[in-house]
């Protein structure tokens, strides 16, 4: 019974299963990978993603992943757009690209969808880079290019190749199934034709016997016409029954259609299949240029049934015909072995001295199928095949006294060639294919993840650093907030302590003062000796007293009122490379 395809959103058109559990497993696995990838992307975006952005985009990506088999084009384009807004959806995009490219059989449509999705991701990523915290648009374009290449282009090409291979295998299986069906039909036709030939032979044999009975009964009827009227009537009845039997035999065998009969010098007679008949076939082949050697072991076959003798005749004649057709000039040996229980016929030919023309080609094998059918009807076997030296061998074995009931029972049994494979074996093979496909897909996902990770890490290394904003020089009248933005350090306790006792007096209106950290360049030693080394701030400081330049910023409330610069004496430090 045929299974009706479902219209589930989680299965491809034509699939018979609903695929709900499969979709749930895929969504769960890709959801975990999305969370892991988000940790990496958060480092690139400086944590600008928030929960209100992540959850809707993640749900959209997983939803497109679940329905990608039903609507591959829409799912791939939607996933490309989602990845431009959520770069962490790269693994889900890779799975979608592989499946969509695999399902799209039209090359133009598949190429157009892949190109559109590949261009969509970098454009959206560049457009939304500043809002997502990825930096400049050029950096977002680079990230989008890496994601599109690793998660869309590569899986898409692999999926397209896998789809083409799968469709090719399906086509080859269909062609193989059609060829197998044609072969079985040809074999059945050959067996039917051979049975028709056997029926024709039986018609000739039985018809000949019935004709003799009718002839002798007619003579008996005439002889008893005056002597015994009673016996004459019985003879007349027997003649009429014989005539009716011949008519019914023709009608029954007539349903087989045209009956194949042997005519001419090869017509089947009572001597068909005997030693003299086989020697005549060998002599006929010798006249045709085929060297034939005949050996006969055992008594003649004239005491055997007509079916056995005709089978021997057919085996020898068909073998010699094939030699004339496909191995002209090859040496042929015919060996007939006849015992009380069996009859064996072996026909071998060597390698032909001249290779047959290409137009001759290989045989259809129908003759051998017919021979095998004839021998099997007698309860025997027939083996045929090439020999190691380049020739061909045919061996027919049949019982000397065949049992028709056993022979017919044997032919009704299905042959091993046509019997289907056990269901258990097919189930195991199907499980093995699924396991191999799952492992291959997992390794592919790992490869895509590694490529995406390496690409993002490479891009992050060349990410432009954020420039510090231009700082405004401190000036009188500046607010305290502006002052804190213009200097690196608004106050330093060490500088304040160094200025104590050495700073100029403050104005009465000043409420508080700030002592920013003093740059190293504001330390002025008393003695400076230039050196060639640049290892210690471009100078070599000697021991001895020096001065430290300090700038004091005093405020009146929240407004900068005064800026005072002064120096305080300090003792310089010994440079590191001069430490004993």
Describe the structure.
It contains 14 helices and 11 strands. The chain is an alpha+beta fold and 580 residues long. The radius of gyration is 51 Å and the shape is rod-shaped. Residues 259-266, 358-362, 413-421, 520-544 and 573-580 have low confidence and may be disordered. Helix 9 (306-326) runs antiparallel to helix 10. It has a 5-stranded mixed beta sheet, with helices on one face.
Short key terms for the protein model shown above:
5-stranded mixed beta sheet; 4-stranded antiparallel beta sheet; rod-shaped; 54% helix; 14 helices; 580 residues; alpha+beta; single chain; 11 strands
Low-confidence runs: 259-266, 358-362, 413-421, 520-544, 573-580
* Biggest β-sheet description: 5 strands, mixed
Strand order of the largest sheet: 1-2-3-5-4
Structural class: alpha+beta
Broad shape: rod-shaped
Give the rounded overall mean pLDDT: 77
Distance, first to last CA: 98 Å
Total count of strands: 11
SSE pattern: HHHHHHHHEHEEHEEHHHHEEEEEE
Q: Mind telling me the C-alpha Rg?
A: 51 Å
What quaternary form is this? single chain
Tell me roughly what share of residues is in helical segments. 40-55%
Proportion of residues in β-strands? 5-15%
Number of helices: 14
